[in-house]
């Protein structure tokens, strides 16, 4: 017989410390590399692991008399944009340079080198003469009018090239950087290939510098998708810095030092590192040169680069005396409304490599708000990664396929339409929109390792295929994650958290539920300290609870995982919990500053 009871549950909060469970960074690394296989264009290799994909784009470039088969599709569409693709290859290569040992330890070195080579093989095809480079295949406008699999593509595969007349220093410089960084990644494993890559890097740097011009002036159609906002000066410095790393040739260090002011390297203090704006990357990379005593007489200039790089890092770490990067209430860096996670991953990569540079040279980061130890930089970076993997207000992994709770409706054509091996009939442009784009069904193909755009500035996220700002994955977002995950496989996952519990022997007589209340994260945003409170409730009444109303006293922030009522202090079971069996559990999360909220059971029904 059902009985309706009203009870007050006095929660005894016992303070203790314990480490939280580790996130599986190795698993995240393995999945992030699978994403690059899902994005492959061209004839797929026999060891392709993402089997729902097939061959595609097998005649790319043929209309122009050049073989441009291969490379990567950019995001959820089928355009091959050379500029962000090159940045992605640079970041993958940087990961191998810094974390080669970690890749070897977890047996992923082959896969990351394969991911780099898939890009550099394509760039070699695109660079057939010293002063020309094919920089795009496909047209964004026509491509976006179709929702079809890569294997079914019917859109024009137009190819675009930069030359001494139609210039493009940004994309030439970035591709030079990619070649140079990749030559370092391959140096110990394929020295001949590394030499080939380095030759292309040198030629493209000379081309970019000698024939300066903006690439989106020459390739007008790219302006809607990857416009050059910061210009090409940062790419020239970026390419020179990487060529110095790859060659130890004083010429390239001279270039970076002598053009430091003229090209903005020591003038720009930025809070973004991205496919468009490389200044923070240049500054951190040249700081490595300084810290390792390889300054070649340019120490004073390199210190100016370092100061600007540390401005970026201090802002990210919330230690920049009011000039900090914006944070969401849940503790995520927030740079842009459009695909914010790409900026989080790139900034986090810089934090991790710089923490290692400092640690290896016994240095600290000096911020306006005080010194920061290398371990503290790493800890903050780890908090960003853990947010991505599920330590966030929604308890959602923004890395597709990681854990059990992740986006199921990605803005990705191939993921949303059944594989050609399952549905061996052509899916046309409009049929794809009508049948699959608008479908509420989850993706039939899980695109493992895809980092989606992520939540908004208030940690809200809507898992809808049409919500491309939040649900579309990109190469540039995922590439930095590969190195981040590799590095974190060699360190503990989380710092200790504060735990509050109600042990069974202290549970008030007759109380229907016990709660374990854990503070899983804390951060400062806009000068205020916030805490993420995770609460797990257990049915202790011996009967199945079919209705529950909880009262929260002292709740000042958002709560996730329970249904609100008209009374803002009262919450009920969420829609997905219709019954809670004896000894079963449910969880919810809330965020606020100050003390924990007091929770009481206002009403419940048990059978």
Radius of gyration: 26 Å
Distance between the termini: 6 Å
Number of helices, where a helix is a run of at least 4 consecutive DSSP H or I residues? 17
Kindly name the structural category. alpha+beta
- Fraction in helix: 25-40%
**β content, as a range?**
15-25%
Which ranges are low-confidence, i.e. pLDDT below 50, for 5 or more consecutive residues? 1-21, 493-510
Specify the oligomeric state. single chain
Strand order of the largest sheet: 2-10-11-12-17-14
- What's the total count of β strands? 18
| Bulk shape | globular
Mean pLDDT: 89
Q: Biggest β-sheet: count, sense, barrel?
A: 6 strands, antiparallel
Pfam families: CBM49, Glyco_hydro_9
Protein name: cellulase
GO biological process, one term: cellulose catabolic process
EC number: 3.2.1.4
Describe this structure in words.
The chain is of the alpha+beta class. The strands form 5 sheets. It has a 6-stranded antiparallel beta sheet with strand order 2-10-11-12-17-14, with no helix packed on it. It has a 5-stranded antiparallel beta sheet with strand order 1-18-13-16-15, with no helix packed on it. Strands 3-4-5 form a 3-stranded antiparallel beta sheet. Helix 1 runs antiparallel to helix 17 and helix 3 packs across helix 5. The longest helix has 24 residues.
